[in-house]
Amino acid sequence: MSLAGKVAIVTGSGRGLGLAYAEELARQGASVIVNDVDAATAAEAVATIERAGGVASAVVAPVGPTATATALVDAAFERYGRLDILVTNAGVLRDTVLWKMSDDDFDTVINVHLRGTFTCVREAATRMRDQGEGGRIICIGSPTGQRGNFGQTNYAAAKAGIVGMVRTWALELKRAGITANAVIPVAATAMTATVPYFHAAVEADAQGEPMPAFFRHGLGFGTSADVAPLIAYLASDAAADVSGQAIGVGGDRLQLWSHPEPVLSAYHEGGWDAAALEAEFAETVGAQPQSIGEKFPPLPDELQPPQA
């Protein structure tokens, strides 16, 4: 699965999952453009990759504006002569319930996650098409975008939108040999570190100890290192026929998320008027409501978080 000679951009790669993606791509031989809004963080990420024998350089800029997308792609061509892989990982959180969410809370998350993915992919795909040698677009989604999550209207909208765009891009870019996929990671991050349910897993990871099997196998919840190999695989020639997919990964688990499909159909001669809906909805499509949100099994006693 060598990526030797390939050039990658990973947005939001100064730390956390994004850094793990950049490190793995470099480990497999790709030259990597690292991106972060903080210069010191970006410089340390580059140094980390170089200490491991990889090749990397940084672009310090906020993801969202077209100017940043252009700067990232220009840097790939100016420093390494080409572009083969784009991983859109940059993101922010502004969590709060609907009735407390401000316009700024909503717009900030949508701008970085959704608009930032769009602007970066548009610029990268345009240059990949001109280059004429195919390419790989890998966009980072979330279980929240697939299932919804309390307090994350903005984040759910952005992540669901990213998967929708990926499906569209897989169609539009096929002729150019460019694949587009979404990865749905489930891993210890700054966000999950604040959730009491995951305390035992996050604590184990922080101490360099193996996560309990309850999390790794039962929930498919793991570390950044568990997610990164899928990024490298999708970036490789081995995944040339994989496109338009939403693939979950975490701990010991790999998942293929289904595309939305009708699960039940009902027909009424002449169409559905109000009376017909009132009479028949509950026993037709209303008889099979779809679940919402993530459902987690009870924690075993030994994995309960400490009481405050």
Automatic annotation (TrEMBL):
PROSITE patterns: ADH_SHORT
InterPro entries in UniProt: KR_dom (IPR057326), NAD(P)-bd_dom_sf (IPR036291), Peroxisomal_Beta-Oxidation (IPR051687), Sc_DH/Rdtase_CS (IPR020904), SDR_fam (IPR002347)
SUPFAM superfamilies: NAD(P)-binding Rossmann-fold domains
SMART domains, alphabetized: PKS_KR (SM00822)
Record Gene3D superfamilies: NAD(P)-binding Rossmann-like Domain (3.40.50.720)
Keyword hit for Glycoprotein: no
Lineage: superkingdom: Bacteria
Keyword annotations: Oxidoreductase
Ketoreductase domain residues: 6-194
Keyword Oxidoreductase: yes
Annotated stretches, region: Disordered: 286-308
Family: Belongs to the short-chain dehydrogenases/reductases (SDR) family.
This protein's name: SDR family oxidoreductase
Organism: Leucobacter rhizosphaerae
